[in-house]
Amino acid sequence: MPQLIEHIDAIARQKRRAVLYLEFHPATGWRHYRYQADAARDIVLAWLDAHQIGWQPCGPIADPCTMPPYLGQVYLDVPYDEALPAYRTLRDYLELPDGSMRHAGVNFYALPLELADNIAEHDEEKTSNGVGPD
Length: 134
Description:
By secondary structure, this protein is an alpha+beta fold.
């Protein structure tokens, strides 16, 4: 069944804050990657669910010149704030104390709202060409 997957920058603009997201990078290369069969992704998503951390599929940062396929990226519904216990728990699960990633093939990113706002023209293109919200 088709589903609408928002770009991570659109989610940041909707939330009006910096957002956290995960990308999964296969050792085998992108050509044969199937996120549905990625054991590391399954482990991370199961941990998120077990710790009641909201997540949803998301696309990469929007680029009006390309439309890459969905490769299993997920938005994490936790504010990027070191003072929040939920953020620290998430960070400590995903990263080792030295800041490297705990799980091979999993990358943890924060997208600042300022950057998301700088590329908001992609939203305008979606609505002006008849694709997207009316």
